[in-house]
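Margin note from the TA: students keep mixing up input and output lines. Inputs are the sequences; the output is the structure of the whole complex. Example:
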Amino acid sequence: MVGAVARKELFNHLASFRFWVGALLTLVLAASSTRVAAGDYNLRLNSYLDRVTGEQKALRGVTVYSYLQPLAVRPPEPLSVLDQGFDAHLGTDVVIHLFAIPFEAMGERRGNEFLAAIPSVDLTTVVSVVLGLLALLLTCDAVTSETEDGTLRAVFANGVSRRAVLAGKFAGSLLAISLPLAGGLVVSLAILRLLIRAPLTLDQWLRVAGMAGAYGAYLSLMLLLGLLISVAARNTSQALGVSVLLWFVLTIVVPATSVAMASDLVPSEEIKRNTESRIAELTAAYDRRLAEEFRRAPLLAAVSGHTAMTFASGGHRAVRYRHGSAAYYDALAKYFQFETAAAARQAERVFELRQRYERRLRTGQRLGTALAALSPAFLLGRLSESFSGTSIAEHDRFLASCRRYRGELLAYLERQGAFGSWRWFSDDPPGELRPWPYYLGLSPEAVDQRQVNQLINRLNEPGVQARLRRDREAIERDPSRLLRADDMPRFFYQSPDLAGTLRRGAPAAAALLILNAIVAAAVWARFHRYELG
Amino acid sequence: MKASARSLAAPSSSEVHAVPWVPMESSRWSPVAAIFGNEIRRVTDGFRFPAFALLSIALMALSAITAGARYRAEIHEQQALTQDYAGQLAGLTVDRAVEILHPALKPPWKLDLVVDGGQTATPDVYEQALSALVAPEIRRIQSRNYRLPNQEPLDWMFVIRVVLPLAAFLLGYDAVYGERRDGTLKLLFSYPVARWKVMTGKLLALWSCLAAPFLTGAALSLLLAVGLEGIPLQPGDLVKAGLVVLLGLWGAGFFALISLLVSSLSRENSTSLSVLAWLWVMAVIVVPAVSGLLAHRLRPIPSEGETALRLRAINQQIAREYTGREGHWRRPEWAAADDYAWERASAAAENRRQTLEEGVRRQGLTRKLDQVRLARSLASISPVSLIQELAERLTGSGLWRDESFLEQARRFRSALAGRIAELDRRDPESPHILFFSGYVSRRPIGEGSLPRFAFREQPVRRALASGLSALGVFVLETAALAAASLFIFSRVDTGDL
């Protein structure tokens, strides 16, 4: 019974104009968007590999501990080709260092910020908009048209039960819609497989299967909604009108409006400004304390024969001194011990403040999600993002792993005794110090304070300059100056696994399945009491 | 079978009303008026019209509210930046002025509720320093909540582009077909009324049903914006908003025509609505998305890797040209001994480097803007995108505003450079190595001596002029559509199904 009804329904759909238009649009959009996204992915992957190798090389050239600031990079996610998610506008690089706890990622802004008004399309959007409309159109007149031309009465007269009719219609439509869905998936996966450099792992294939399942659950919900409209409407015309209106509101209006409201109506500028000013205050106070501490050591406060002649500074308070005396370096070591100890506490305080702002953003996110949860298209988007690994939760996971890595790095530095040693700030070998008076034939202690400026001027003499240059070149070429950080812990980003993505996508999946059940029950209840003509 | 089908059908809306009556006597226009009245009743009956009216008005009101919130937030952030800058300017010396970043701010777009055109996502701060050692920054001050998916803000164009066409299609898809099915069309055409008058009546009715909620929404939206949200709209802005309202009304008419056309052509009700729904998907989603994808492929923007490579090449070139003489800066007291010989060479090298790097940056920006221009032109195949393009040009939003901002910011830097150079010239003690901190005048700059950046929006007349070509295309499209509809409608057969 059910089989016969289903078959008839399937053939009806395959013969209809709307089905073929929808199928064609799906295939065209899926193919073109996946093609472009795959090309993009390859570019991103190349850029990622470049950055990683560049990073390795840079780390090998580091000579002092304060310059040891590894870059944690998140590799691009292959499944982002199917569902772009948040990947397009979130960063992927985090510099790990002592002075700040990672709270945001910098990096590749691949987008064209001037192209905001052109919608971006990926397979998930195509499924939710185009196939969603097709699903509604297929079933919305399933019952009304047959009622109108009397075939339904004939079917019941033949002894087919109501349950069988409903089940058959649903099954037939599900089969029909699964054809363009499968087509779109096959085309996208073929392009994915052919174009991207790295083959997919088993785990990734399983996640693709999860995405397919999500698409199926969504389309089944849309089919059921269409059936509900068909059973409840007075005639085909009304059924069609309600379907298109419902699709429009659920797929287009609700997501757009709820995101707009959540982003504009949850004011976060106040908190952001407060946070920034508090952080600025804290940083200023911290800088003042450090400056005080620095000035306290007599050797550091004034230029003397002991002062290091060369000073280089890099990002995040990386420093490198050369040509200082042992006494100077001892004073510096004491100062930097203070600085690094205070730094860890400062980083935590700043991080806490930033977390306050972050919590406000999360409130906005929760509001947006709550408002948009009415839309099955939005739920599909969430679920599919979880599976493809491009959700905001994945980004959070990346940042959390960066923070864990920072802990490991700090522990490593602690073990190496980096913080209290000369190696934090200088690569001069302890046995062969060459403080600057040495180039003038003097020793640091012999330099009189009043003569310092004159003596420093003498450093510009060609002979002295030549010796300095020779020594500098020797320093640069000496491999033993390099920091042997081969046993340093490396950053490793665990790509999302199936279990994790299931866990993260569970709420959206549950919502979709519950909605399916509710609407199915409503259809059954309504059809039970359906009056023919 | 067909007769019984009709009797089985539940009463449709047009059967409830009497057959359209046409007064035999009286003036030329009252048949149209009668058809108009009848059609209005037919369209507004049922749930479709109230649903769309409510949706349009609610969305336009919401656009005013959210635009107001965004406007206030942006003003706040920009004020903070302006205050910081003003603080820096107090007691500023020429020496310090060359190394600080001077911001050029693009003010928040007041007509954001009408036509956003991407203005809430494009950069609005262009900070430039005069020194070649400090790189400029182009960024957006107010960052949106990154935890929410990227979404265009709500504006009137969302209603005009997305809601109005669908409303036109849903309200008009059975304008012709429905009457044909119920037999009233035959009766209508049997009266001695020219067919084009019938079509005009139907068109006007459909169009008014679309226009009334739109106009209400626009009025409510403007009231909310000015009254409640406090967006300071000037008369010029109101004129621009008025232009967009006109454009919306025109668009409503355009889509109403399409509705009538498809309704006349189709043999079945469901075909008519399906075709219109798919047309909507094609016009609003597929064509813009595909044009974006094509633009992405045909005019790719330089990747970070590419830019980094070019910057490295520049560094190598400078190293070659200035072999070892770049990058030497001594303390001014020591350098004065040989009249800053090293420093002049280094300055020349750094200035050259900056020129080359600026060239790379500008090329990157130009390529991004070219990509947008191509995407826009390709998307204009869809009348919906054409309307968006027109709206942006007529109000001076969109790409124009961004390009103009970049241009004005660059001119601001030139003006600053000129002024600082002049101030430096007046100081005989200065080494005059422009523009490097430590080697220019140490004199303080008086209050108000430096030019300030003030962004000039596009005046209405220029806006109109820039939109002329797109306007011409749209006029042609409308004319063609009207002619086609008239032709089809006059050939509509009223025969039995």
